[in-house]
Amino acid sequence: MSEETTLIQTEEYLKSGIHIGTKFRTKYMEKFIYKTRTDGLSVLNIKEIDQRILLAAQLLAKYDPEDIIVVSRRENGWRPVRMFASLTGTKYFAGRYPPGVLTNPQLKDFIEGKIMLVTDVGPDKNAVKDAVNMGIPVVALCDTNNPVNNVDFVIPCNNKGKKSLGLVFYLLAKKFLELKGLINENQAFDKTPEDFSEE
Predict the structure, then answer these.
(1) What is the 3-state secondary structure (H, E, C) of 5-55?
(2) pLDDT 10s digits, 79-138
(3) 3-178 falls under which CATH superfamily?
(4) CB-facing half-sphere around the CA of 44: CA atoms within 13 A
(5) Taking the domains of the chain in order of start, what are their residue ranges?
(6) What is the pLDDT of residue 3?
(7) Where are the beta strands (DSSP E) in the chain?
(8) N or C: which end of the chain has fewer CB within 10 A?
(9) Can you say whether the dihedral through the CA atoms of 36, 154, 152, 137 is positive or negative?
(10) Given CA atoms 148, 150, 154, 158 in this order, what sign does their dihedral have?
């Protein structure tokens, strides 16, 4: 895989563990699996991960930041989600997602959105359900064991590890800002993947 065609050096992907899946695989996720290790863990295809992160950033960049809702119930995703939101101006929920916040206009914290990004369809199922009820497309980080019903666009990755989640949100933020014309592709992005990883 040539380095020029990837968002970041392959070595960085490998260091983060972004490609290490679980011992379980759902039918849909099989197409993203490169091989199964001797210990039974599935290994995701890095080229596919890279391509899908790019496509997800392109999709998100079609929306105004205030129309994007980013959700992470999983603690390892809190820092990446907060960092992504602070750089891009999107709405976010790190931790508990308030029930009905998208579907009940009577709530004082009611919000509207046009697209949702979730770190894991399992823990974030309530947010996904609300998005589906409101007809909002869902972009989801999915590991090898994730079902993808109600997901409109899948980013295959290890969606449990701190470094992996940090790297995904770092790359999404960087590409999103480039596509929005807020940073130049050639200028240095003053954040690193480590800035997005939980201490």
Answers:
(1) HCCCCHHHHHHHCCCECCCCCCCHHHHHEEEECCCCCEEECHHHHHHHHHH
(2) 999 999 999 999 999 999 998 899 999 999 999 999 999 999 999 999 999 999 999 999
(3) Glucose-6-phosphate isomerase like protein; domain 1 (3.40.50.10490)
(4) 35
(5) 3-178
(6) 44
(7) 33-36, 42-44, 68-72, 91-94, 115-118, 138-142, 153-156
(8) C
(9) positive
(10) negative
CA–CA dist 184, 36 (Å, integer): 39
Q: What is the pTM of this model?
A: 0.94
State the pLDDT at residue 182. Answer: 85
Residue that wins the pLDDT comparison between 150 and 185 = 150
56 token code pair: 């997800």
Written as six digits, the tokens of 17 are: 């563990």
Cα 43 from Cα 120, distance rounded (Å): 18
Cα–Cα separations (whole angstroms), residue 90 to 8, 18, 151, 196? 23, 24, 20, 16
Query: φ, ψ for residue 10 (rounded to 5)?
Result: -55, -35
